[in-house]
Every structure is written in structure tokens, then in C-alpha cells.
Amino acid sequence: MSCAHVFAPDDGHETAFTIDPAAMTFGRDALSEAGDHARANGCKRVALFTDRRLTALPPVDAVARSLRAAGVDVAVFDEVHVEPTDASFRIAAAFAKEGKFDGFVSVGGGSVIDTCKAAALYATYPDDLLAYVNKPIGEGRPVPGPLPPHVACPTTSGTGSECTGIAVFDCLALHAKTAIASRRLRPTHALVDPTVTRSLPEMVVAASGFDVLCHAIESYTARPFTARAKPSGMAARPLSQGRNPWSDLGSREALRLGGKYLVRAVTDSTDHEAREGLSWAASLAGIAFGNSGVHLPHAMSYSVAGLVRDYRCAGYPAAEALVPHGISVVVNAPSVFRATAIASPSLHLEAAALLGADTRGAGPDDAADILAGELIRVMQRAHVPLGVGALGYGAGDLDALAKGAIVQTRLVENAPIRVDLPTMRSLFERALSYA
Ligand SMILES: [Fe+2]
Question: How far is the CA of 325 from the centre of ligand 1 (A)?
């Protein structure tokens, strides 16, 4: 293929990549098709997952009405915890098991969709919670078989969870986030209505928008699939298979749209073009990283979010300390891309140009500063915290942050550079402040 010179395989290394298509309907009024999709998948009684804030809002109403109009019995679970935990996953799984549902529908942000994935998994194949969780925190056991149909309806434009087989949660006892990752967790169909993002608060758009940018840049700069050892067979090919020609397509366009629309979508809630454009970027980035995996900014985000002490963010529940996912990711990103640029300067420069940076006359040695600088500029314009220090962390937290991130093996191994514990600590040190 024409890209062979970019993805040239070495002896003993991977020679092929898998495209797992995310089935999706995108556009205004897409949610009204929920009932048709449930019926087409043979569902007669579904669990509808959402959270307390959303339960009385129009998207949940539209989906529930569509399901009922199609003759599908609906039981609503609205106790999803924003930034879910092992405890909240267990509660959701118990609801899913007791209800004997033949299908699942989720309406919400990444927390809702991830909780629905986990509930469907543990209701279908009950086991200890850590059984299917990524190693080394969990046992990393494969999901034994197919899951019931799941129609995912995102209400934010960021996580891409509707396109991926990943469910992230906070393991409370370990103060660390981790994930379950399996192709079997990918929703059967995504219904994305970009107009539902019109009413989102500014910081929710900012957090989810930076998650989009990081999905795209991390997918685009991930270790290429040809750098992994050849798997023993198709089933052994990991979900985070590395950068590949398919993920590149989504990453590039998501970056271009993110560069054009993110700041506009955050700063002007009446800019419908920007909010809907960002929604499409989120779906494209979700398709990209769902087929490549992300790397260090996400690995680091798990300890940034898991070790939070008292940070609170406007637009999110104020009852407990919480770092929104996209914020916990982007605060690490400039530091990481400064370090990874050496692995693929041209890709880092291209990512910066797609975001809007002027890269004319730039050479390989400029890639690190140009991409990091452009990201910091966008962060400033969107009014998000400029580094992990702004979330309450200091030099005394660097060891704990690094320890929590280095165990995210799936993500750390997908990075284009090799990272050990001291390197991880220095990445956090350089992420303390970009101000
Ligand atoms: Fe993310």
C-alpha cells in the first residue's frame, strides 16, 4: 500500500492492523431513531442509563419516547456517578443483573456510556470487578463472549466513548483510575445529535473539547502498529494497536476541526456551527483512538484525576472534588509532546499546523516547542488550568503522580518513546505550570 514507507514493518513485528468500524448515525434528531435500533437488535426490555442531572432533560426524554413508541419496555437507571468508581460500577451492574434486560441504552457523557458498558459486562458475565480490568491493576481476563446490544447516545462532544471498547473508572482503594478494554465493549450503535451540546456549560465544552484534541494528537503520534511484536493470532492483537493509516484519517480531520472550532465553541454558546463541528471532531477522534489507542497524556490523567484533593470545576457537580477527564488529560499534554517530538518530528509539526500553528520554515528541531506552544495558546484562550499545579499539585506530589501513571501499561506502551518511572516523574515536573 502507498503508506508502506511510513509504516515499514521490521522482521518479527506486526504487519497488519484491524479496523473495527464504529456503527454510528450522526445528525440532528438522530436520537429519535433509538427505538428503531433497539427493535432491529431484537430488544424488548432495555435499561436506559443516565445521570441525575440529565434525567429530566430533553435528550433522555427523546430517547425514552422513541423506545416506548417502538414498543420497547424501558427501565431508567439515573444513578451514574460522574467520573465513575469501582463502587458505582458495582451498583450499576447489580441494577443491570436484577432487571434481566435484553439490551442497553446510554444517554450522557463518557461517565454514563462507560458505566453502561461495565454494567452490561458484569450482568452478562458476573465476576470479581478486577477480573476484566487491565493488568497490572486487574487480572486482564478477556471478556468471555458477546454482550447484549448497546445503543449509545452521547450528550457531550469529547470522550468518544460511543465509538470505543473502553470503560474508565476510579479504583477508590488505590486512588487510581484504570480501565476495562475489549472490542466486545464497543456499543452496537452510536446515535450522535450534535445539537444536544448547545446547552452545555462553558467548562464542560472546554474539558470535552481538549479530550478530543488529545485523542487526536495521541492517536497521531502513538507508536506505529508496525513497532509492536507480531501477535500470535488475530485475537491477541490489542485494542491499543498503535497508530495506523485508518486512525490517521480521523486524527487529522479531528485536529483540523478542533483547531477551527474549540475556542469558538467554548467562548460563545450561541455559535452552533462551532459546537456541532466540535461534535463531529469528537466522533472522528473517537473512531481514530478506538482503533489505535492513546498514550502518555491519558496515562498521566489517571493519577491526576485519581489523586485529586479539593479541586472543583465550574459546570460539574460541586459536592465532591473532581478533575474533569479532559482537563486531567490536557494539563499533561504540552510536557508530553515536548518529549515525544523526537520520535516523529514531522507528525508533531503536522499536528501543530492542523491546530492552526504557523509551521512555515520549521524544521525537526522546532517540532517540540511549536506543538507544545500551540496547545498552551489554545488552553489559554479556552480558560482551562495551565498545568497540574493549577489543580492543587506541587513538587511533593510528583512521586505519587508518577507511580499512578506508570502502571497504566496499555497506554504507556503505546507511547512513541520508552518511559520509566524517573522519566514519568520528570514529565509531571515539566507539567506543573505552563503559565
Ligand atoms: Fe479521553
Answer: 7
Domain 201-430 has CATH 3.40.50.1820: no
Q: Which residues surround ligand 1, an ion (CB under 5 A)?
A: 211
* CA 127 to ligand 1 center in whole angstroms: 26
For ligand 1, the distance from its centroid to the CA atom of residue 370, given in whole angstroms, is 23
Pairwise CA distance, residues 295 & 69, whole Å: 43
* pLDDT class of 4 with cuts at 50, 70, 90: very low
List CB contacts of 407: < 8 A, sequence separation 6 or more: 136, 137, 176
pTM as predicted: 0.93
* Contact indicator for 293, 134 with CB cutoff of 8 Å: no
CA 39, 41, 45, 50 torsion: positive or negative? negative
Whether the CA torsion 223, 226, 227, 231 is positive or negative: it is positive
Distance 73 CA to ligand 1 centre (A): 32
Query: CA-CA distance, 328 to 103, in Å (whole number)?
Result: 32
Nearest Cα residue to 217 out of 113, 54, 337: 337
Sequence spans of domains, the chain: 29-192, 201-430
Ligand 1 midpoint to CA 279 (Å): 14
Q: Prior bond to 136 cis, omega within 30?
A: yes
Q: How far is the CA of 42 from the centre of ligand 1 (A)?
A: 31
Q: pLDDT by residue (tens digit) across 341-381?
A: 999 999 999 999 999 999 999 999 999 999 999 999 999 99
CATH 3.30.300.30, domain 29-192, yes or no: no
